[in-house]
């Protein structure tokens, strides 16, 4: 990649994903996660719970469970703030909600630019311009990703964020952006699990010097309540995963998360169940052998649950593919 500066270390191997954690539970979950040892928190404007996450961070720091500098905090620029003049204000709103002065990582959430929605009108703004009309739709605007990226680079220069990166971007988008960037993307966050292995993308990032964070690392679970997957889509119930869990004396979730870590990615499982927090964190005290790693990789179905080319049309009245 041209235009790259040197990369600092990537995020800790296991983080807590805050997507779909209920607002009234977020502060408690975040505070407890930090207390038991989580140091990587993955947030976003669109999740609608950054203020509550900030309260959890404040509690944990006040209780002496960590210092701010011990935490890796990621957030994301939402689609409605892609115009360069909007980027800094969006970042500053996230910083204020989280109660921190600097993010460790700020990501472009999707390579999708939508019409601006003022904070005072609706925050987080969501996907559609006007949810009150009979047929709500997304309102796309023409903003080159390189222009948005230039404003992201200025956040680094202003000291508001340490690193910048991308979410939900295929190789072609990354190549094009990197060819124009002064600061190359440090991290790519993408959906990645045993039913969506994405080996070529992972290799590309590894050879390009980009760290990779796998979201939805356990697969279908978060998408079942949304109607985007069924219980039968769960990789955790697959016989191969079950057999490896039995052989290693671990749970299926721990096996799948360990597979992700051994591939060289960080993983950000979501849970609002306090008993699962410790289970998901305890994945570095065992290893999978080569045969087990190959067996899990062999489950690949190229099954993407988080696909704007499908859900945008179903939920937001707009066909908007970003993957082939």
Number of helices: 11
What is the CATH topology classification name? TIM Barrel
Please, what is the CATH homologous superfamily?
A: NADP-dependent oxidoreductase domain
Number of domains: 1
Helicity range of the residues? 25-40%
Unreliable stretches (pLDDT < 50, length at least 5) are: 1-8
What's the short story on this structure?
It is built from eleven helices and eight strands.
Structure description:
- The chain has helices at residues 23-36, 50-62, 84-98, 145-157, 171-180, 199-208, 239-248, 252-262, 274-281, 290-297, 308-316, and strands at residues 16-17, 40-42, 72-77, 103-108, 161-167, 187-191, 211-215, 266-267.
- By secondary structure, the protein is α/β, with parallel strands linked by helices.
- The chain has one domain (16-316): Alpha-Beta Barrel (TIM Barrel).
- Strands 1-2-3-4-5-6-7-8 form an 8-stranded parallel β-sheet.
- The radius of gyration is 19 Å and the shape is globular.
List the helices and strands and how they pair.
Blueprint: E1 16-17, H1 23-36, E2 40-42, H2 50-62, E3 72-77, H3 84-98, E4 103-108, H4 145-157, E5 161-167, H5 171-180, E6 187-191, H6 199-208, E7 211-215, H7 239-248, H8 252-262, E8 266-267, H9 274-281, H10 290-297, H11 308-316
């Amino acid at each position: 990649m041209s235009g790259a500066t040197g990369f600092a270390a990537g995020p800790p191997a296991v983080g807590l994903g805050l997507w779909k954690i209920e607002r009234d539970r977020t502060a408690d979950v975040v505070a407890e996660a930090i207390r038991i040892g989580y140091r990587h928190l993955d947030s976003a404007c669109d999740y609608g719970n950054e203020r509550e996450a900030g309260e959890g961070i404040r509690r944990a720091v006040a209780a002496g469970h960590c210092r701010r500098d011990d935490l890796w905090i990621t957030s994301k620029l939402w689609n409605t703030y892609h115009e360069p003049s909007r980027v800094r204000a969006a970042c500053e709103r996230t910083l204020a909600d989280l109660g921190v002065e600097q993010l460790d990582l700020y990501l472009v959430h999707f390579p999708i630019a939508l019409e601006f929605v003022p904070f005072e009108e609706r925050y987080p703004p969501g996907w559609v311009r006007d949810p009150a009309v009979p047929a709500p739709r997304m309102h796309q605007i023409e903003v080159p990703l390189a222009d948005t990226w230039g404003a992201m680079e200025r956040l680094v220069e202003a000291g508001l964020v340490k690193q910048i990166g991308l979410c939900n971007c295929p190789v072609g988008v990354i190549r094009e952006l990197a060819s124009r960037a002064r600061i190359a993307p440090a991290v790519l966050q993408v959906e990645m699990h045993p039913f969506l292995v994405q080996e070529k993308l992972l290799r590309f990032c590894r050879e390009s010097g980009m760290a990779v964070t796998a979201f939805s690392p356990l697969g279908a679970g978060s998408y079942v309540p949304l109607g985007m997957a069924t219980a039968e889509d769960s990789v955790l119930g697959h016989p191969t995963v079950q057999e490896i869990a039995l052989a290693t004396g671990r749970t299926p979730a721990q096996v799948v998360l360990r597979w992700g870590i051994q591939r060289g990615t960080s993983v950000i499982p979501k849970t609002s169940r306090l008993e699962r927090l410790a289970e998901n964190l305890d994945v570095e005290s065992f290893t999978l052998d080569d045969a087990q790693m190959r067996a899990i990789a062999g489950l690949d179905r190229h099954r993407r649950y988080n696909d704007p080319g499908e859900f945008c049309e179903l939920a937001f009245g707009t066909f908007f593919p970003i993957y082939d």
